[in-house]
Give the backbone structure.
Amino acid sequence: MKHIVLVGNQNCGKTTLFNALTGLDQHTGNWPGVTVSRKSGMLRGLTEVEVTDLPGTYSIHPYTEEECVTGKALLDGGYDAIVNVVDATCLARGLYLTRQLKQLSRPVILALNMMDEVRRAGMHIDVSALSVLLDMPVIPLTARTGEGIDALRQAIRKAPEKRASAAQITPPPIPTAGEIDAAYRNIDALLAKAVTQGRQTDALTARIDGVLLQTPLGLPILALLLMMVLWLAFGPLSELLKAAFDALITRAGRGAGAWMQRSAVSPWLHGLITEGLLAGVGSVLSFLPTILLLLTGLSLLEDSGVMARAVYLLDRPMRRFGLSGRAFIPLLLGFGCTVPAAMAVRSMSGRRERLLTTLLLPFMSCGAKLPVYALLAQAFFPGFDGLVVAALYAGGILLSLTVAMLVSRWRHSGEAAPLLMELPAYRLPTVRSVVRGMWDRAGEFLRRAFSVILLATVAVWLMQHHTWRMAWTDEMSRSILGRLAGWLAPLLAPLGFGAPEAAAALMTGVLAKESIISTLAVLVGPEGIPAMFDSTAAAVSFLTFVLLYSPCVAALSAMGESMGRKRYALYAAFGQTAVAWGAAYLVYHVAGIANIL
Amino acid sequence: MTIDQMHPGQKGAIIRVDGEGPLTLRLMEMGFTPGAQAEVISVSPGGDPLLLRLRGYTLTIARREAKKIICQEAKP
């Protein structure tokens, strides 16, 4: 089988091209560093070709951790040809990498991406001259619209199937300043022969940036955009969708229950399905619209190029906390899910900052915790539930800033790495890419709901109704779950929620945060959840604990990888739980003494 | 002069990048080589980082790094 690698600068549209070539959807963003680890797919229409998308890089000689992935993959061999993706609107910088790739003596195909923008800017590129001068096939295309993809597919098909091993590839030596200078002189001479420059800048991008980046309006506009995303996710539209979705799930559950009653299904199975599956998985499923809208909003910010501007605007303020503007992207993604957020950390340069950013991620309340907040806030603060949820999010952010400040004071080990980042042009995400993104995220959510969470709910239900000797029981205190939770509950009693059900839910929450609500739904029924708490103070204390305690296993594993040491993730889990205990204790007692709640 | 001394809207031709080490080489690899034209587009609130246009693309650069890039101001 033929193996092709996609290599190019950050933000040259490599991932979009990968999607167009393979038909697999992978998340693409309009800020540098979307592809953080290598991903592969089969070339659509040519099943015998495997395509691997490598993280963006400016040079074979890596500067950041994700660039190391690309450098290593290129030198390790095991591929037949390189497809070098270049943003045709800034050829010089792209061709610098092209020259380095050529030194590897492997076949290179040059994919000139973003030809639509080239035409719009009035630029002209003599493709055949470029091909002769570079001595490689050059394919003009626009990955976003699909223009030229077939031609690239043909070129890939023509590439010989001849693999080189690592031993056959000699790593080029690190260049000297003089060599880099010579390379660019060479490129400039070549471009003078093949390219007629047009109006240099993208007028629209320049105009928007003129307001966003050059006037004091930048930060307020950014804040407004973020609030719009939150409004999209939690506003009336989302509530309407959620209500409709809820009704659908309830009806399906009732229908299934009635059918089972009619056909005299054994009470054991009937219980497992209605109390276990339908209550548990159903309670998680009903939050699909909210989470989908939140993630879509975040990805719109990314894909349009707004996120990269946020990095620039926030660089200075974030340095006060020992971070750079770059940390903003993973932290914001953390509100969706900690796993992709931790992966995004790898595109940052500077080990210290990577470590600190990763440690702060769990403070950004992830989307899976949202159902718990929404449910309890609605029960205890009717009418003010939105405010309470917002306060929880704000509390997490404030605590993270405090931790960042303390860590950077305590370990006075230098500042965050300087910001050196390309600002992409603004691009309106296509409807197709937005819809596909939503479709994929919905698929991911459903997969989780019907795998990890389904297993967890079944396990919880079985453990709730069986003793250690596998005898049937209806008493929680005698069941496996009751016993396990019974050991943990006394530790949580000082926080105001000593019920074994709460302890059990928090335990399963470490598997996946969605399980907190599904476990509670299985144990006390969806309507019985608020009644578990004696007072409003206890409910708020529980919410505080959920906000802050150990991240789920998937998040911990991704965090361990981005920090470079697995055991750091373990420290994070314990540290985070200790902080949660302390904060919940404080909240419970302060609220109790002040009698405000 | 160095790039950090230029005002928004000012253009200059790079003469050289001072210093050594991976960051200096990375600056050159990103296109800060002798003769290349750079334009300061704006300065972030607080004075750092700077926004530059170089070789057909826009990038942000910290003032500390901009100080290392020697350039010749282009006559308007």
Q: What stands out?
A: The interface with chain B takes residues 58-59, 61, 63, 87, 89-93, 96, 174-175, 177, 180-181, 184-185, 188, 200-201, 205, 209, 213-214, 216, 218-219, 311-313, 315-317, 325, 418-423 of chain A (CB under 8 Å). Residues 28-36 of chain A have pLDDT under 50 and may be disordered.
